[in-house]
UniProtKB/TrEMBL annotation:
Protein name from the UniProt record: DUF5658 family protein
TM stretches of this protein: 7-28, 43-61, 81-102
The organism of origin for this protein: Cytobacillus mangrovibacter
InterPro entries reported in the protein's UniProt record: DUF5658
Keywords: Membrane, Transmembrane, Transmembrane helix
Superkingdom to which the source organism belongs: Bacteria
Domain called DUF5658: residue spans: 7-94
Amino acid sequence: MKKAFSYLAILNLFDGAITFIGLRYLLINEGNPLMNDLYEANPLFFLGYKVLLSGFLYILIRFNKLPTIRLVKVLTTVASALYTAVIVLHCVWVTPIILSLFTSRF
């Protein structure tokens, strides 16, 4: 479970960064209404929430307070698979723009 929770925490941070870039350059829309409201209120609220959520997962790991019931294990596995798919989509949409910005500066 520690590896799965760590993986979700890392995905969450990466998703926050790549979503921020995608939103900033109008490449994507935020599909989660809560996250969209946070971003529209202040992009730093959006990023801060992502950092806090990942930090919370690491606190659970650090203090060995991970849930051990089967349902949580199944949900963690499903969430990891879905989150990975979302990250792949974000990267497909955003990476070409990031690369063009990087190469246009040199």
